[in-house]
Design goal:
There is one protein chain. The chain is built from nine helices and 21 strands. It has about 400 residues and is an alpha/beta fold. It has four domains: about 40 residues; about 100 residues, Immunoglobulin-like (Sandwich); about 50 residues, no CATH class; about 160 residues, Rossmann fold (3-Layer(aba) Sandwich), CATH 3.40.50. A six-stranded mixed sheet has the order 18-17-16-19-20-21, sandwiched between helices. A four-stranded antiparallel sheet has the order 1-10-9-5, with helices on one face. Strand 12 and strand 13 form a beta hairpin. The longest helix is centred in the N-terminal third of the chain and has 25 residues. The N and C termini lie far apart (about 70 Å).
Length: about 400
Amino acid sequence: MSAGIRPLTRTIVLGVVGLLLTIMGFGFASIPTVGAGVLILIAILTDGLRFLLIEGRKPMDSLVRVARPNPGSAGEKISVHLIPRVALTTRSIDSTGLEEWVPDELSSAVDVLPRGMRPQGAVLAYELVPPRRGQWTLGPASLTRFSALGLWWARVVDATTSQVTAWPRIVEIRSLVVAEDREGTVGRLGYVQPHQDNTTVRAYSPGDDLRRVHWRSSARRGELMTRAEEPTEADRAWVGVMVSQNSPFALRELAISLAGSWVVDMDRAGFDVDLACGSQMVRSDLGELLTLLAIVSDEEVAGPITKNPIEGVSLLIMATDGQDMTIVSPPQGRSRRNGGALAVLLSDDQRVGAALDKAGWSVLSMAGVSSLAEAGERLSNFAGSQLRRGR
């Protein structure tokens, strides 16, 4: 808590007036003038003393900060509400004096909602639009209290903070995934698991994850069948991102958004996805992978990929600034022959494109593409054509 005089001018002026009246009253032997000056000084001191002993030291009611959606996406509106943990029984929170600390990068995008538009129970509500992917800390909140005469003030702080996360912008990738088994390649428009040979299946039960449905067995038996075993390495997908550190900001963000879009597409298909960025490779759920893409640094995304793809559908996204970059090989058994190894090159570096092609990747050059929507459409068409050709 910090205490002081607010507004400073008002308190100083009144104090000077009271002191002058008291001095002048003694000088002129005017009892009313002396009385007026003394009353002003007493009012100032009494107001300050009462406020210091009663109001100024009263703790601020603890607040809960609710952000929806969180995580959100870059460019998507996030609503933030500050709600007291307990029902208000005092005037300890007056929303007219309530303030929230917001990072400078987000402050220009904050729109504070007036009282009539706030959710029930909220003492402060505002909306913000993250301009980019990332993670920010909101809070703490502070409350400025004023004395009864408004001559003294104190600021109390609720130190609670919250993090809000903005995922990369996502577009739909309409890829085709094929299933291969010992009886030959089974393909269809839509999503199925790869390499589902010797799979133990059972009848589908309400509540089973639809991503575990074994489509071939279901088609053969005429009813939904669910895979009973844990996923194998063949049930996984891989995406790697490598963008040289000197590449333009927009190019790096395009690469990361394409990677996030592919992760969403593969997760929807039922794959367990590995994300490779630099020297690390992470296998986690969809939310965690998108959060990692939201906070990945320029240095991390520029590092050489040291973890090769595993068996399964793989996507490599690269952008260079003319410097040599390490080329990883496609997963064993996957290549341009079966459409399971796709590489997107976001620059016009022909040497890298030739190296990718030699390594066995199906290469899609997107040099000059800046729109995420266009990039997503081209990747969808490319992935579909490669997978159809590989059947």
